[in-house]
Amino acid sequence: DQRFDTIRSLGNKHIVTPHIDSLVHNGTTFTNAYIMGSMSGAVCVPSRAMLMSGRTLFGLEGTGKTIPEEHLTLPEVLRKAGYTTFHTGKWHQDKKSFARCFSTGTNIFFGGMGNHWNVPVNNFDATGSYPRNQRYKGDKHSSELFSDAAVRFLRDYKDDKPFFVYVAYTAPHDPRQAPEKYRQMYNPEKIVLPKNFLPEHPFDNGEMKIRDEKLAPWPRTPKEIRRHIADYYAIITHMDAQMG
After folding, report:
1. Which of 61, 57, 121 is closest to 88 using CA atoms?
2. 154 within domain boundaries
3. In sequence order, what DSSP letters do the residues of 188-239 get, joined into one string?
4. pTM here?
5. What angle (nearest 5°) sits at the alpha carbon of residue 100, between those of residues 97 and 105?
6. DSSP3 helix / strand / coil % (the chain, rounded to 5)
7. Per DSSP, which regions of the chain are E strands?
8. CA separation for the pair 220, 206 (Å, rounded)
9. What is the pLDDT of residue 117?
10. 179-238 confidence digits (pLDDT tens)
11. Other beta carbons less than 10 A from residue 44's beta carbon
């Protein structure tokens, strides 16, 4: 959901991302990894399946909504090697694959998108069923909800076993809702439009108006796109702050 060019240390001088920058400088950055797109209106589903499995778009099961048993994932490998595998946040794949991947977790969101201030989540269920009647609504912004869950796990973990923590933020997926403090950091009038901005696609392959028209109508004006970019930067900076 977050483009590489929304990270300050990777070249965007218009956004504030100090904690992600720290990960870039002190961790590993996959600068030659590319999201291959999607065969549906949503890129968030296959991108997460590709990330977990290491497979290309065309090697996934369908759109990536289901990860079959024969598609081994990173957390599965680590779990089989003796790691405790913890998840918090979004899992847009199937519950069976989640049960194979993770041995524990909390504030687990099985879904694609929704109100960041009212995310329906589950606690870890060893049976793997995660019934709807056991869901509860988060009492804070999704980025804060998931970060707090990860911090609690790290604080309380006493086992000698190694662990793997997967914090899958819903942000910056739309709706781009950030606290007002972060929205005030980006004035839409000062947002620099990308050089390739166009009000509308220059051609129509029959698949151009499936998802994006829900965000803004066509043709799009520079003013409208500046507002969207400002909101995008705001929710990213808020997410970054939760990593600090």
Report:
1. 121
2. yes
3. GGGPPPPTT--SS-SS--S-SSSSGGGTSPSSPPHHHHHHHHHHHHHHHHHH
4. 0.93
5. 95
6. 35, 10, 55
7. 84-90, 104-109, 120-121, 136-137, 163-168
8. 19
9. 93
10. 999 999 999 999 999 999 999 888 887 777 777 777 888 889 999 999 999 999 999 999
11. 17
Amino acid (one-letter) located at 64: G
Nearest C-alpha neighbor of 66 from the set 92, 90, 84: 92
Decide if 50 is inside a domain: no
- Confidence at residue 113, expressed as pLDDT on a 0 to 100 scale: 82
**Total tally of structural domains belonging to the chain:** 1
- Residues of the chain under the 50 pLDDT cut: none
Q: What pLDDT does residue 31 have? A: 86
**Which DSSP letter does residue 127 get?**
T
DSSP state of 58: G
Cis, bond preceding 199 (omega within 30 deg of 0): no
Burial of 219 (0-12, 13-18, 19+ CB in 10 A): exposed
Instruction: Give the domain range for residue 81.
Output: 64-170
Strand partners, 168: 89
